[in-house]
Amino acid sequence: MTVSDAPAVEVHGLSKTYGQVTALRDVSLTVTRGEIVVLLGLSGSGKTTLLRHMNGLETPSAGDLRVLGEDLTRLRGRDLRRLRGRIGMVFQQFHLVGRLTVLENVLTGALAGLRGPRIGVASYPREQRRRALTQLDRVGLLDKAYQRADTLSGGQQQRVAIARALMQRPEILLADEPVASLDPESSDQVMALLRDIAAEDKLTVICSLHQVELALAWGQRIVGMRSGSVVLDTPAAGLTRETAMRIYGRMTASLAEVQ
Ligand SMILES: Nc1ncnc2c1ncn2[C@@H]1O[C@H](COP(=O)(O)OP(=O)(O)OP(=O)(O)O)[C@@H](O)[C@H]1O
């Protein structure tokens, strides 16, 4: 297998401990390119830690991790930055700069590929400005381009954050609880957007969620996590809400047992 047709993510026997806390236990998972995978689990089950490993933000305590065919744990410096450039991230708290315009926030997604500091929209190359406006159009916010980011609703801010992540032309998008701070309608909009963009750009999306309904509605594959372990890995299509709720219930019960 060549690097170019390798799976998006291959994790084997991954464990992570922080002092006495075991955040991940012997996790193995292969995600093929173009898949939309939902990591489902309660708070503290290890979803964020797993996503952070996939972007090289954490070093495993044990196990192997390959992303886009490359051993992420061995990369350093420029090689690590180059691989990270192929992996976009969106977060629960959006991480926009509220006093900057929406367009400037989107443009910052292109910074890794540019030299020198940039201040203001006009300091970015014309091609990047054109691309930023195109991405804003895709997320339905072209008319907000020159508005301050902190005047937007939460759902709109998350769509700006997605447009910013798309500026780096990622092959994988890691989304860590992207709708946890949003109301149900905005949550559906953001998840629909992620699905449509994934299909259009042939993106691999790995998204952590804690709501079963959203996971079943938007995931192709559900990976259930509990206490740092993968306890479920199944196509969403074959999973009924009742079954998923039972699994989730068991997660709750098991977690209650260990607390
Ligand atoms: N830097 C760290 N130092 C110490 N413990 C950590 C650290 N990061 C995570 N943990 C612990 O690892 C476990 C897994 O946390 P993680 O954030 O991955 O879970 P999660 O499923 O993403 O939960 P949430 O949805 O609340 O973020 C938790 O017990 C957490 O307290």
Automatic annotation (TrEMBL):
Pfam families the UniProt entry points to: ABC_tran
Keywords attached to this entry: ATP-binding, Cell membrane, Membrane, Nucleotide-binding, Translocase, Transport
Protein name: Phosphonate ABC transporter ATP-binding protein
Organism annotation: Dactylosporangium maewongense
Keyword Protein biosynthesis among record annotations: no
Single GO MF descriptor: ATP binding
Cited SMART domains: AAA
PANTHER family given in the database record: AMINO ACID IMPORT ATP-BINDING PROTEIN, PHOSPHONATES IMPORT ATP-BINDING PROTEIN PHNC
Top-level lineage group: Bacteria
ABC transporter domain mapped to chain residues: 9-252
